[in-house]
# Entry
Amino acid sequence: MRILGCLSVILGLTSGAALAEPHRQHAPHEHGHGTLNLAIDGKKMVLQLTAPSQDIVGFEHAATTP
# Structure
């Protein structure tokens, strides 16, 4: 009976900590979205393109329709 009491206390304490954790959500899923940064310093210009590779070079296989 003592073991059951200890387990009840441990489960009660750990479940409270789990419920206190804030709910996190992922950002929305987007297709065809990229970011282009441009920096100019004198005669130097730097471009930085950030995008998923499949949006630039396409999928690994040809698309098919049923």
In short: The mean pLDDT is 77. The first strand starts at residue 35 and ends at 41. Residues 48 and 58 are 20 Å apart (CA to CA).
